[in-house]
Amino acid sequence: MTAFHASPVVASIFSLIAIASLLLAFVMLGSRWMRHYLMAFAAQSWLIAILSASVGYIDRYPELYVIAILTALFRGLLLPYLLLRIVRRMNVEREIVPVLQPSSSLVIGAISVVFALAVAEHIGTSLDLSSKVVILALTVMLSMKLIGYLMLAARHEAVSQVLGLLVLENGIFLGTQILVPGMPMLLELVILFDLLIVVVCFGVLVRYLMGQVGSTSTLHLRRLVG
To answer: How confident is the model at residue 179 (pLDDT cuts 50, 70, 90)?
Structure first.
């Protein structure tokens, strides 16, 4: 696998893309504006597409070129476009009542990265993995998962929550591209199309919330109980 026997140049490229993707997750975590979320998610998805193409070229997995193209089209263009249409139609520009302020979210996100690094190093020690890029890939993957969960917990707008799910999934996808680039293409295609279904379902949910309670905040979902 590329990550386990990567040359210094390859490791540097993978590390740079992984760190940039993590920083974009922090952009989403520290902002209230929906457009910032969407722009950061689109940029993050394009970076993952570049990573897939790089792994495909370096490790001679031609099927990863297809995954890179589909990732760029679906995650980098189609999904942000669909979410932007939802934002414009529902006139939801920013998160109104977050559970945590952006500064507090960033602090918790930073703590999550430290925790993820400790877990990744422990896994690396347990499995006798000495490659720094492997530890970094595990750290970024776990960090983005934790940040995605934090966005789900700390944001009430439906669009913010679906972006939390997408960030979480981006973290998993980024990690697999570095650690297991030979993952069957059919499985990766299923994941890509699942994301499209998730966004469509959230679009239906947002329209229902606007029609029934006049808001896109998921806090109003408790009115459906009973």
So the answer is: confident
pTM over 0.90: no
Q: What's the pLDDT tens digit per position in 75-129?
A: 888 888 878 887 777 777 776 666 778 788 899 999 999 999 999 988 888 877 7
Phi, psi of 91 (to 5 degrees): 55, 50
C-alpha–C-alpha distance, residues 142 and 113, integer Å: 8
Q: Are 106 and 30 in contact (CB under 8 A)?
A: yes
Report residue 46 as tokens: 């394009």
Exposed/middle/buried for residue 62 (C-beta within 10 Å: 0-12, 13-18, 19+): exposed
Give the contacts of 47 (CB within 8 A, at least 6 positions apart).
17, 20, 21, 24
Instruction: Give the HSE-up count for residue 144: Cα atoms under 13 Å, Cβ half-sphere.
Output: 31
Cβ contact 6:131 at 8 Å: yes
Distance between CA atoms of residues 168 and 140, nearest Å = 11
Per-residue H/E/C for 160-188: HHHHHHHHHHHHHHHHHHHHCCCCCHHHH
Per-residue pLDDT at 52: 86
Distances (CA, A) of 142 to 69, 135, 159, 176: 25, 11, 22, 12
- Percent of the chain whose predicted confidence (pLDDT) is above 90: 17
